[in-house]
Fold Ubiquinone biosynthesis accessory factor UbiT.
Amino acid sequence: MTTTPPAPFTLPAPVGALLSRLPAYPGSMLLVTAINFALAKQLPQDVKDILRAKRLAIRVRDARVAFDFSWNGQRFVPCKPQAETDLAISANAQDFLLLAQRRQDPDTLFFNRRLVMEGDTELGLVVKNALDALELPVLDPREWTPRAVLERKAPQLLRQLPPLPRFLRGRP
């Protein structure tokens, strides 16, 4: 971890109440698309074999949302919300973001009870160790703005768009 993480932050309860009303399946679809893109091809075969048909959930406590998915042998696929999962990983939104940005260590969050794994402990360790072993890009939210994605994927289209006003560029 290269920087000191910020003080813990919890989304306000009204925000969580609003987010909890959103349908779960579209969020799970977005999550599996992202993890398939970012790490599915990098997973070792033995981890893929262990994950096959396991029911997994990511629960964002303060946002009051959950993303249910499983590994079908070739990719992660969304599932309908399930009461029983093989492994559920829970944390607040900020903690998941800090993990993705590599600004916080999962063990630290776990021992401080900010990251909770429920269900199959052995499966949880397999997932944690597999993620630790992968060379994953650090999530920088600026890299995922519509303009940044277009710049990487469709620069010719980006050239056709008008420039952003200076105050929206985030740079002087």
